[in-house]
Amino acid sequence: MDNELKNHYDVIIIGGGITGAGTARDCAMRGLSVLLVERYDFTNGATGRNHGLLHSGARYAVTDQESASECIKENMTLRKIARHCVDETDGLFITLPEDDLNYQATFVEACHKAGIRADIIDPEEAKILEPAVNPTLTGAVRVPDASIDPFRLTIANVVDARLHGAQMLTYHEVTSLIINQGRVEGVKLRDNHTGEEKEAHASLVINAAGIWGTLIAKMAGVTVNMFPAKGALLIFGHRVNNMVINRCRKPANADILVPDDTVCVIGTTSDRVPIEECDHMPVTDEEVEVLISEGEKLAPSLATTRILRAYAGVRPLVASDNDPSGRSISRGIVCLDHETRDGLAGFITITGGKMMTYRMMAEVATDLACKKLNIDKHCETATTPLPGSEEKKSEETLKTYSFAQKAADGRHGTYTKEIKEDDIVDDALVCECEEVSVGEVKYAVDNLHVHNLLNLRRRTRVGMGTCQGELCSCRAANLLCQSESADKEAADLARFVDERWKGMKPVAWGDTLNEAQLTATIYEDLLGLDKVASKEGGME
Amino acid sequence: MATKTQLESKSVFNFEQCLKCSICTVYCPVVAVNPTYPGPKQAGPDGERYRLKGDIFFDENLKKCLNCKRCEVACPSNVNVGDIIQAARIQYSTHKPGLRDRILASTDFVGTMANRFAPIVNMTLAWGLTKSVMHGTLGVDKHRTFPAYSSKRFETWFKREAQAKQAQYSKQVSYFHGCYVNYNFPKLGQDFVKIMNAVGYGVQLLEKERCCGVAKIANGLYDQARKHANINTSSIRKAVKEEGRPVLTTSSTCTFTLRDEYSHLLGVDNTDVRDSITLATRFLYQLIEKGEIKLAFRPDYKRRIAYHSACHMERMGWIIYSTELLKMIPGIDFVMLESMCCGIAGTYGFKKENYPTSQKIGAPLFKQIKEAGVDCVATDCETCKWQIEMSTGVPVENPISIIADALDVEKTIALNS
Questions:
Q1: pTM beyond 0.95
Q2: Considering only CB atoms, which residues of chain A are within 8 Å of chain B?
Q3: Is the C or the N end of chain A the one with fewer CB within 10 Å?
Q4: Which positions ≥6 away from B177 have C-beta within 8 Å?
Q5: Is the ipTM of this complex over 0.85?
Q6: Once rounded to an integer, what is the mean pLDDT over residues B230-249?
């Protein structure tokens, strides 16, 4: 991939989350020359640390009609343009004996008002549709919720942006903004792998750094006040449910259970945290307790289901007192034109919103960028399928696939055909829990910005399964040795195994603890990996 | 509080207890010879997570599993790997059993028909022409030798010759003879009755006995298997609960099916009677151990015998009972063969497509047997017997037949009266 910087870009986008990737795609599709810079890896921040829920908008219908309408619109769009990232599960909003059943009518009415299909169904029917649901439920509403994979979605946007000429630099951290006479003209960068300092110039810089956008704004001398809201989640070992299960009440802690690929995820909590803590957010015992006890109410079998790991993300909510005009900013999308707001030209901040409304955020930001650059091109991202989602495969075609190909199809969609599988080596499995073949790893390394095991995990699912890297980490590291030095890869392996353990630690009991002990025996006692010092730090 | 529930409970989902150590795959006899089989870990706990995601992830390659359960014996985490694979086949397979599979599965029906014309059937089945016709049209491998059918069923013999004498014994057991004893080899049943009577036990048949159903499970005839399981379990319940008789068997696979497969795979609850179903060798050994019975053997009995550990014996953990019992015979020069699958796995090895795999799996065992220089091989499973006899030429006998042969009946009766 091209690391050589051009002399000048139309836009530089800061942040390799879904917002940045989506904005890069939109800008590139409208013919802009684009550079995206990300200090670590794509999806490293909030994008990779949420529920993976394709909201129908029902959750917000009662409290925030605007968000609800945005959600249902984007929900329907993403089903078409990102079908390989979406699992069309549908969702239930259940009323439990302790909840007020009268809320259901208010809820359904609000959904309908926002344009969200919401059908009241008999609790008995709900139990048939979703056998894992709490059988004591007194009411159920079926809504078009779904599950979406944020890693795949981001990478599909990255790939498409690249196909339209955009340049992407991961592990490039913005150290300062180049400001000249009231105008942002570029960024100073540090290559986080080599330490090398660089400069990149552009007509516009778009700040899409999520919660860290507040720090980028600070570099520009402007203030964007954010509410960093920490949300903790738990991943269970398999799909207990096949439909999203929510509580039919005002949004609260741990009231959404989402089936994501081979696992299911309960979340979230919500707590204010200082910005300094956003890079390191351990999940506490109290959070685990809340997640389990509330989760059990949605699906009682969670009480005895193995928990793979815990993680936390941070919502980039924008403070309502932020806007100098005094107009209150909702929980929705926030696009700040710093030229009109702060008198600083060449600088846009796109923030707020939700993972699943990223495309709309990108459209708003790109519209503004095009206006500033005097480019008259319309947004086409809502109608052009993302790479991988060009066509829907028939069940007959899928049936002819090998097991690993079927699994890969869920990750790469139509690009699965690029994965070599015809010789005995490429066909072999690296990750057995998640069915990742050698061919798929090679494909990811060659095409999807993979520098280390962590990148590889996010591009495939290596190390995300039941064993949390116990068997696949060393196999994958061996494959990465073909492009990286063995010393560097040994350190990478040590870091990866350590990172897996960090997520397991808050829930380390029972089989998860046994698994961790077996992993420790293999990597420490057998391979002596604890002797390999981990050199790179950071939040990764 | 909630965390406490989590801390105290093992996952109710047995497949989640898999720690991915892969020991099961090391012990899988199929993986070793057939690379197209994904192996017990992949087919079992790993595949299960994907099957929960969607039916599309069911892999018909699962039918290559022998159901030998050696994966379960190997598993250090008590995962019922074999059950997970078989249960997945029951739940997801869209493959309909063909004529051949139905014939192979219907050991009882075919047995009933064959008994009537036993000499003709046996002769015809032995013809090369018949074998190649069956190979070509049905898909039953031409190399296979079918077990000979008896012209008189065990049940018929028992009712005519033995039943009346059984009432004289104060202690009674019920006997689940199985299809093989009934249709092919009544002598094993007769040997069993001979031993039991000699140690002072009367033998009764069950009120109703059907084929245990193991071949039906293997060939996808689950509803029929469940029907049989219900009939057998209620007959067993009657014997155990009302008559106070334990139910004895002389076939390891029938025993395993009656005890474990019924509840694990067919959903037929037998927890109240499971412990009362036992193998004859185990029953005898435990009585000897407790000092309740004694066996006396003929001083002139001299044989070199090798014991083969049938897979389901290994799964039940009962090999020790048969081997220790055999070792009590003073004239036996005992050889313990290394425990490995013989490759037949019931009807599996009879199928044309499985024959090469079947023989490859058994090859190391056959070599060991041929080199052991023994008079006969002892094993508790009848299909292992067919496979070993066909593949080595060495005769195979059930431990019960060997004991009956070596038994000094008069002396034993005297010791136990």
A1: no
A2: 237-239, 242, 259, 261-262, 285, 288-289, 292-293, 296, 301, 303-307, 395, 398-399, 403, 406-407, 429, 432-433, 435, 465-467, 470-471, 507, 509-511, 514-515, 518
A3: N
A4: B154, B155, B189, B205, B209, B249, B250
A5: yes
A6: 97
